[in-house]
Amino acid sequence: MDMQQSTGRESEQPFDDVMPEVQESGLKAEQVKQRIEQGQRNTVHRSTSRSLGAIIRANVFTMFNAIILVAMVTVLITGSWRDAVFGFVIIINTGIGIITELRAKVTLDRLSILVASPVVVRRDGKNIAVGHGDIVMDDLLWVRLGEQVPADATIVHTWGLELDESMLTGESVTVRKHEGDTIFSGSTAVSGMALVAVTAVGNNSYAAKLTAEAKTYTKTVSDLSKGINTILKYMTFIVVPLCVLLVWSQMNAVGGWHEAVASGQWRNAIISAVAGVVGMIPEGLVLLTSLNFAIAAMRLARQNTLVQELESVETLARVDALNLDKTGTITDGGIEFIDMVMLGEQTSPLHHSEAMQALYDVSNEENPNATADAILQALEDQGVAAGKIRDRLPFSSARKWSAIQRESGELWYLGAPEVLLAAMDGNYAQVAQAVTSYAQQGNRVLMIAKASVDGVNGEGELSPTIASGAHPVALALCAERIRADAQSTLAWFREQGVRCRIISGDNPVTVGAIAAKVRLTGDREPISMDARHLPKDIEQLAEVLEGVDVLGRVLPEQKKAIVQALHSRGHVVAMTGDGVNDTLAIKEADLGVAMGNAAAATKAVAQVVLVDSKFSHLPDVVARGRQVMANMERVASLFLVKTVYSALISLASVLSASPFPYLPRHITYVGALTIGMPAFILALAPNTRRYVPGFLKRVLRFAVPYGVAVALSIMLCVWVLPGIMGWDLRNRQDLFVLNATCALVLLFLGILVLAQVARPLRSWRGLLVLGFALAGLVGLLTPAVATFFALQVPQGSMLMATLAALACSAGIFVLCNMGARSVERIISHSKQTRQR
């Protein structure tokens, strides 16, 4: 499908009356038809790496879903539907995954750098309007003021054409074009017009090539997700063989396959085996991670921050290298008038007022450019109003100056200092030195000059040459408008240990001066460098970057290489930007951040979009990422304890040929009260702890000792209680009592694990643990709940046995806790010794 829709036919409206006369007649109808047949039209074909079917298959057909589905179907076959409620997690988790990736696909499919608008071409000696997709190779195309160049071309004739190429190169200064120059698709005409010959169309154009590379689908993979996926990968290898062994051992536990089938005990054996399998898979952890990302994204949306890939919420919490584009990030793209500096001895209030009035009047053109408009607004705020003038010579980028003549005949000039000084008689070395000094401070410097003589030509019009006797009067200082929040935001990142660099297409001296103004490096002077001197080798580039804070004259490909170089040193990189020239680097970075006023292509490939273009929102994104990481570490610890003890209990049941201690519905009940619901609350709690690498190691250090404590306690109940109580585990009622007792012990230990995870308990967290402990007790005492989940209130001798089991379990739990802390101290001491 074409990204740009063709109009289908040429417009009948002629444009000959409004276009300059040229000799070239352009392509003939037959030539146009021939090029269309050869596929040389200006159409760009959509292509994303994953189709709708591929997205659905990737989310539905996973090992995780397969195991849960098989387990659920197996339980349903036995007729015990109450033990199959765990299967609903498949539908919820798969739905979240599909919706998230579909959002990414829709965004990528809409990606377009070029604005598909009608253009005027010259064919058969006539100027006609055609659709953007109807442009063909070798067409003669008119580029007019305000239009975006739709295809790469070479200039045939120009009438003062100036292009804004900032969306492609990042350089904010407009570029004057001449005959024979090459212009690229995606740039915009800001002055004049031109007739150009198309040299590249469709997928071969510069903008389309940038788009094609930017559109490649890459899913953000967080450190959190990597850890969880690693756990699931290893559990997959364990679950399948252990499941087979469990079924075999449970059949033997009820008298063998023949006896199990004859007596119907095979159903209990299958259900017990499924209980072991379901317990080993942290299905709620995957679901809760997705939900936590989604909720964090919604909270950020309230602060005008759009998260386009949910997993990117936590990525910025790990970023240690932040690359900032100057225009649109540090500055807002606008110009502001800073000051007017009088030159020489002309420092009296009268001279200052006279120069101020002249500055206003020269700038006050019919269509002032951005710099003149900024001057006018600033002077109007100071009470300056338009004065009387006799004549005006408007600003021209070719001359680089403009002029007015007053009724008295005196002339006032405003323009580039180097141009005006070159036309003046006299030695103005000190003025030139002052101009250089102000320019190095990041200012755009304009000179105000005066000539007392009459400067009209023979036709009574102002002369396009500077009059003799002109002399400098003052310098007008303008600068890019710096965002009010830039300095404080950069200070925050410095305090957090994040290395910020400014990477821009502008002059490195100018960018360095702006970096100094916003205190990019604090008290230290930022080190600037021209990107044209950067090495191409990635390793050499990485070495250079360690000592550079500001880079100017950076090309789009270099921005991408800079990100790659930082990656080679192990840095987690975030990249901000607003132009098409930033898309490749944003795509390459671990986290791409686009401003709300950015190009459509830039916003489409970024994971985070600051809708109102406020740089100050980035700390909010960091804080939300830290909350996700810190809280999900707690939650993962909670879930993995269940995985560890389920795997150990299953293995112990196989090796000892013992009946499995509890039913799947027991896991559902205990898991909901001690893991699922508490985890959801803990995941949303405030948390500003800075992220420290090593998520998976810390989680396993917590989960293993407590998982061992729970497994040992439960298996002791299975091995000891039947002998003490005289239970025959081949009898369904005795097995039911054992299962109910083990479920109570599991609930008790689950509350203890929850208390460890939720610490400190002297806050709402303590009430959380107490609340779920009471909820478990209330459920046990509620007949309907107890019946559904196969629970039983212990009485008589069973009560004594249960209390003894609980006391023994508490002791084992404490011993494992002490052992884990001792191991931690030994490891910590060993690390300190090695460091010394």
From TrEMBL:
<feature type="transmembrane region" description="Helical">
    <location>
        <begin position="84"/>
        <end position="102"/>
    </location>
</feature>
<dbReference type="InterPro" id="IPR023299">
    <property type="entry name" value="ATPase_P-typ_cyto_dom_N"/>
</dbReference>
<keyword id="KW-0378">Hydrolase</keyword>
<dbReference type="InterPro" id="IPR008250">
    <property type="entry name" value="ATPase_P-typ_transduc_dom_A_sf"/>
</dbReference>
<dbReference type="Pfam" id="PF00702">
    <property type="entry name" value="Hydrolase"/>
</dbReference>
<keyword id="KW-0812">Transmembrane</keyword>
<keyword id="KW-0472">Membrane</keyword>
<dbReference type="InterPro" id="IPR036412">
    <property type="entry name" value="HAD-like_sf"/>
</dbReference>
<dbReference type="Pfam" id="PF00122">
    <property type="entry name" value="E1-E2_ATPase"/>
</dbReference>
<dbReference type="GO" id="GO:0005886">
    <property type="term" value="C:plasma membrane"/>
</dbReference>
<feature type="transmembrane region" description="Helical">
    <location>
        <begin position="767"/>
        <end position="791"/>
    </location>
</feature>
<protein>
    <submittedName>
        <fullName>Cation-transporting ATPase</fullName>
        <ecNumber>3.6.3.8</ecNumber>
    </submittedName>
</protein>
<feature type="transmembrane region" description="Helical">
    <location>
        <begin position="797"/>
        <end position="816"/>
    </location>
</feature>
<dbReference type="InterPro" id="IPR044492">
    <property type="entry name" value="P_typ_ATPase_HD_dom"/>
</dbReference>
<dbReference type="InterPro" id="IPR023298">
    <property type="entry name" value="ATPase_P-typ_TM_dom_sf"/>
</dbReference>
<keyword id="KW-1133">Transmembrane helix</keyword>
<feature type="transmembrane region" description="Helical">
    <location>
        <begin position="231"/>
        <end position="249"/>
    </location>
</feature>
<feature type="domain" description="P-type ATPase A">
    <location>
        <begin position="116"/>
        <end position="213"/>
    </location>
</feature>
<feature type="transmembrane region" description="Helical">
    <location>
        <begin position="736"/>
        <end position="755"/>
    </location>
</feature>
<dbReference type="InterPro" id="IPR059000">
    <property type="entry name" value="ATPase_P-type_domA"/>
</dbReference>
<feature type="transmembrane region" description="Helical">
    <location>
        <begin position="699"/>
        <end position="724"/>
    </location>
</feature>
<dbReference type="InterPro" id="IPR001757">
    <property type="entry name" value="P_typ_ATPase"/>
</dbReference>
<feature type="transmembrane region" description="Helical">
    <location>
        <begin position="55"/>
        <end position="78"/>
    </location>
</feature>
<dbReference type="GO" id="GO:0005524">
    <property type="term" value="F:ATP binding"/>
</dbReference>
<keyword id="KW-1278">Translocase</keyword>
<feature type="transmembrane region" description="Helical">
    <location>
        <begin position="667"/>
        <end position="687"/>
    </location>
</feature>
<feature type="transmembrane region" description="Helical">
    <location>
        <begin position="635"/>
        <end position="655"/>
    </location>
</feature>
<dbReference type="GO" id="GO:0016887">
    <property type="term" value="F:ATP hydrolysis activity"/>
</dbReference>
<dbReference type="InterPro" id="IPR018303">
    <property type="entry name" value="ATPase_P-typ_P_site"/>
</dbReference>
<feature type="transmembrane region" description="Helical">
    <location>
        <begin position="269"/>
        <end position="295"/>
    </location>
</feature>
<dbReference type="InterPro" id="IPR023214">
    <property type="entry name" value="HAD_sf"/>
</dbReference>
